[in-house]
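ok new one. same drill as before - C-alpha cells go in, u give me an amino acid for every spot. 190 of them this time. try not to just spam alanines like last time pls lmao
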C-alpha cells in the first residue's frame, strides 16, 4: 500500500528536472479491492505527475541556524553518485549547499569531483561559510565593545579587537582598480 511521503505545500527537489518545486496536490491511485491507494503521485506544477522516488525533501543541517536573513547549510542529493558507492563520505549520497538567500537558492556549491576528492574538507568549508555572517557580527561587536571602553579594556581584548578589525578590513574594503589597468587586474601583488 502506498502512503504519502510528501504533503501539499512541502518544498521538494525534482530530480529529473533539477529544480525546486512545491507539492500542489497528492494524487492517490486506487485499485478495486484495496482499502488504501496502491500508488501515490505528486503534482508539483511542472506539467506531469511525479512518483516519490523522483522527489527529494531538503535536509537542513541541525547545527545550522535557519533564522531569517542568515546563511544556512542544507544537504542536496548527489545525483551522480549513489550513497552505497561513496561510504567514505560523511553523509553518503548528499553534499553540502550553503544557501545565502531566503528563497533557498543562491549561495555556494561545490563540484562533485572536488567533493569526492576530500569530503571532510568540503564539509568543514561549508560549515565555516554558513557561520560567516555570525562570525562577522561577533567581530563587529568585539570592536564596538572595545571602542566603547575608552581605553579601559584589558590588553588581551585590545589585541583581539585589532585582529578582528584587520580581518573585517579584508572583507569590507574594496580596493580601487589601479589607473591605466583598463579592465585588467594584477593579482601578483596581492
Amino acid at each position: 500500500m502506498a502512503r504519502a511521503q510528501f504533503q501539499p505545500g512541502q518544498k521538494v527537489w525534482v530530480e529529473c528536472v533539477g529544480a525546486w518545486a512545491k507539492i500542489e496536490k497528492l494524487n492517490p491511485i486506487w485499485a478495486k479491492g484495496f482499502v488504501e491507494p496502491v500508488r501515490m503521485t505528486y503534482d508539483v506544477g511542472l506539467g506531469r505527475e511525479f512518483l516519490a522516488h523522483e522527489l527529494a525533501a531538503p535536509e537542513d543541517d541541525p547545527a545550522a541556524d535557519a533564522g531569517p536573513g542568515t546563511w544556512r547549510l542544507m544537504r542536496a542529493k548527489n545525483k551522480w553518485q549513489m550513497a552505497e558507492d561513496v561510504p567514505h563520505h560523511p553523509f553518503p549520497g548528499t553534499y553540502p549547499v550553503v544557501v545565502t538567500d531566503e528563497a533557498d537558492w543562491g549561495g555556494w556549491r561545490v563540484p562533485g569531483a572536488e567533493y569526492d576528492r576530500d569530503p571532510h574538507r568540503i564539509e568543514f568549508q561549508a560549515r565555516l561559510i554558513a557561520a560567516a555572517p555570525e562570525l562577522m557580527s561577533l567581530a563587529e561587536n568585539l570592536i564596538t565593545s572595545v571602542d566603547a571602553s575608552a581605553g579601559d579594556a584589558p590588553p588581551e581584548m585590545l589585541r583581539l579587537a585589532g585582529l578582528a578589525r584587520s580581518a573585517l578590513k579584508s572583507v569590507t574594503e574594496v580596493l580601487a582598480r589601479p589607473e591605466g589597468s583598463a579592465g585588467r587586474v594584477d593579482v601578483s601583488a596581492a
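Residues 83 and 102 are 29 Å apart (CA to CA). and btw DSSP finds three helices and ten strands in the chain.
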